[in-house]
Every structure is written in C-alpha cells, then in structure tokens.
Amino acid sequence: MKKQTQWLAFGAAAIVIIAAAYFLFFQPAVPENNPATSFIHFFYLPTCPHCHEQMDKLNPVLEQKYGIIISKHDTSQGTGKELFDRMVAERGWDALVPTTLVGNEKFVGYNEEIGAQIDAAVAACVASKACKDPVTGSAVTS
User: Fold this and answer.
1) Are the C-beta atoms of residues 103 and 39 closer than 8 Å to each other?
2) CA–CA separation, 125 vs 99, rounded Å?
C-alpha cells in the first residue's frame, strides 16, 4: 500500500513537471505580419509577461477600433530577431521589450498609461493618413 502511494505521488509530480515545462517552453507562435503593411510594429518575447499583457489587452482593441494591422515581431528568433537586432544597433536603442513603434514614435514597456499613449499615437496616425512605416520609411495608408 505504501509503495502504491509513493508511485502515485511520483506519477503526479512527473505530470506536473511535464505540464509546467510544456507551458514554459512551448509558447504559441504569434504570426509575423509583412512589415511593409503597417505603421505599427510590435516587438516582443514569448516569455515576457508585459508583452503578453499588451498582446491580449491592447493590440486586438487597436486593430478592431482603427481597422489597422499591427506587425508583430518575435525578437527571440528568425526575422523578428534579425530586424530588432538591426534596429537596436542602427538607432542606438536599448534592447527592451515590449517595444511598440507607431509612425515616428517609440514606446517601451506596457502598462495602462503607456497603452493610452500608444492608442493616442495610433489615433493621430489614422487621422492624419500620413504616417510612415517606422521600419521602411514608406508611406502607409492603413
């Protein structure tokens, strides 16, 4: 009876560890958009809680409210990492996430105050119809 209880405890612990590892290391991928389609670029890490807060609370609201596309870039790998590393080097930025570019404005971090500033910058860009892609410098209409 005692051995059976020990094996059950061991099995339960193993399941918890495997589940924790899965959720810690295997974050769902956020598709990267074509960087030339938006005047808003969002740089994030899959393990960053503030990034996920912005992805969950602000970004979908902005996309729906203004009918815009936010270009999302995972800075931990692939083209998102390459783009962010290049911009950090070229522009002398600190490599911090989340970083949100709206036209010619840059926002680092996320909380309600920063979210309101990002929203205001998006509203101004949409109203002006003259914002440029902060990565390419090209004129963007949406």
Assistant:
1) yes
2) 18
